[in-house]
User: Fold Diacylglycerol O-acyltransferase from Prauserella sediminis.
Amino acid sequence: MPDRLPALDAALLYGEQPSTPMHVGSVAVFERRSGDFDFDTAMQVIGQRLDYLPRYRKRLLPVPGHLAPPVWTDDVDFDLGYHVRRSALPAPGSDHQLFDLVARLMQRPLDRERPLWEAYYIEGLEGDRVALVTKAHQVLVDGARTVDLAQVLLDEGAADRTPAEGEWTPRRMPGWSRLVTDAITDAATRPAELARNVRFLAEDVVSGLGRTARTAGSFAAAARSATAPARTGPARRLNSRVSGGRVFAGVRTDLDSFKLIRAARDCTVNDVIFTVLTGALRKWLESRGQHVPPSASVRALVPTALQHEDAEFSPAELTTSRLVPYLIDLPVGEPAPMLRLQHVAHEMAEQFGSDRPVTARTMVKMGGFAPATMNALAARVAGSLPRRGFNVLIANTPGPQESLYAGPGRLSAIYPVLPLGRDQSLAVGVTSYQGDVYFGLNGDRKAMHDVDVLADMIEESLEELRGNKW
Assistant:
């Protein structure tokens, strides 16, 4: 039986536009010790880890006449040197220069005739650091059969991981007659699947909303995304039609600052993170001369992993947890930071209700750097929902607090890169690692040309909260 792309994923793939590529990325910065994590070493480490990711050596082959969704097939011409590329900044390169390069790399769509992922090894960073920028298409990483490369690339120790046994040998790609025959056979043996394929391939992806919600585990949450319009007023600036250009900024903050506020106000770290983002968005809107009335809010789509009641998850099961799209109204109109925190905490509690988000402690039990996979799943959820129902995508996934390594290179910083939708000019990824909280701001070059200003506002907003008299 062919490894056929699910109908909903096929609809996402066919709905992709050059201005809105649907890949998820990360920017991992490594410390080098006497140059031991060079390009050849990085290539070797990535090549070994592909043994754990068979789909990273497969490409999608379309079925003639679109009789069925494409199938995953071995790329007989797989070339690791094509997927892992070398680049450099003029030394000593700054983080700002790195982020500018990341934006240009992320705005380029992936090659559909090859496996849908790329990695860039970037030298020249000040402090003898290097960066590894990865990008993978939403349909490639499903959390069950395939996780993100960054998750298997990083280990708790610097020792080499034992490669899988045997050398990879690609199977011959099926010809068009085989593709058609398999499609007809599938239609005869699974008529319900055929009807589903026809519906998804013929209609807009929005028509699959109900199925998406049931898969996620919450029809009501997805229905609210579809029917509740995004707030108007200042928030409309975040719903500009997206161009082909991108801007990116990363922000590194201290996790202890968030914990201090959490302890003082009896809330969660997640509440504090969203309050900091709320304050930053308010300051950014005001920096553009925008009047922000007291009632103004920004509606965020927040994909959240849930666990069943009294369920205990093993690391292998976490990636298949229910990921539900919640709508959170961020009170950007509230001028007082402590009241903003109260509003956000109340909104979070009201939206989640009796649902149980997967805890940070449980999340970090997953091997490697699991937030990379969870961000890919969050992007899949966002990509399957109507874009007019929210203003900004925000995904927050806690990461491990111990040092991680890619071969001999120690990870020192990591920033998520989430994709933009057609009418969403900003996407924010948040993760934590080794005592720090990292924000990755991916924006449209026209609508969010001042994304670095918003990045500065995140630090100001955190300082404003931390400086309050408790």
Q: What stands out?
A: The first strand starts at residue 3 and ends at 4. The CA atoms of residues 399 and 432 lie 5 Å apart.
